[in-house]
Amino acid sequence: MSTTPINGERQTLLAADGYAIAATRYRPLQPQTRRPALVVAGATAVPQGFYRRFAEHAAARGYDTLTLDYRGIGLSAPPSLKGFRMDYLDWGRLDLAAGVAAMQTEGRPVVLVGHSYGGHALGLLPDPTQVTAAWTFATGAGWHGWMPPLERLRVLFMWRVLGPILTRRAGYLPWSRLGMGEDLPLDVYRQWRQWCRFPRYFFDDPAMKPVTERFDDVRFPIVAVNALDDAWAPPASRDAFMAGYRQAPVRTVTVDPRGSGIGPVGHMGYFRPQASALWNDALDWFDTVLGQAPQPAQAAS
Q1: Tens digit of pLDDT for each residue in 165-201?
Q2: What are phi and psi of 250, to 5 degrees?
Q3: What is the full DSSP assignment across 50-80?
Q4: Dihedral sign of CA atoms 106, 280, 65, 267 in order
Q5: Per-residue pLDDT tens digits for 92-144
Q6: Distance from chain centroid for Cα 191
Q7: Residue 222 and residue 57: Cα distance in Å, rounded?
Q8: What are residue 24's DSSP bridge partners?
Q9: How far apart are CA 175 and CA 89, in angstroms?
């Protein structure tokens, strides 16, 4: 990892519907070594600060990098989520789209790194031609049947018992009380629960056909990485979802934490410092796709 200090710059993006999205931009220290622009598409209920170390590392490798909070999350949340209405799809088709548009400057290509929901959002972008390539971590279909038995029971209890009780009382899903991440808007919770009923997530929901048909517009290359110890998105879950990118060249990579030297990964460990080797895999691949020589992180001055 780089030891060069790279400070993020707070920015406000305006989505197509006028909603203000809080973002942070990490610029390379040496402009002449800039790689393409990189946008991080985060997971459900995960604030952008979780991806800071990865963003700093990418910037040290020459990538002008942007993180953002989807509406209703982190710095993009209203004072109260009670009564806050939105569509779960807005995170991709409006919020992430605003991030991609903001980074389309100076004629540079834009690449994406997605975590969990971030891999779903690739197909929700209104204009996928604005993206050159994408690398995803932990993207899966969300169906409990793909999960290990114990995790399956926990998730079913969440969807069928605990979630309904908590949302009825609060008017949103107070996940922070459970140590599960940021609180979630009620509409996000309801749509997420609905699609997790299906083995192939929203691809199996007949009402979502007009949306999922647009996944055929995604034609840029994708690498999808999932760890064997990821209880929420094991490789089988990944394969079920990524099959929806029917026209895109998708390569899947399965990480065995026992032999990788990076320790336990789970669903969140892909962006912890011990997984920096995975970060370099992604950045090296982007360099290869774009015909550039891989570049080491800038040394500390």
Answers
A1: 999 999 999 999 888 889 999 999 999 999 999 999 9
A2: -110, 125
A3: GGHHHHHHHHHTT-EEEEEPPTTSGGGS-S-
A4: positive
A5: 999 999 999 999 977 789 999 999 999 999 999 999 999 999 999 999 999 99
A6: 17
A7: 21
A8: 10, 67
A9: 20
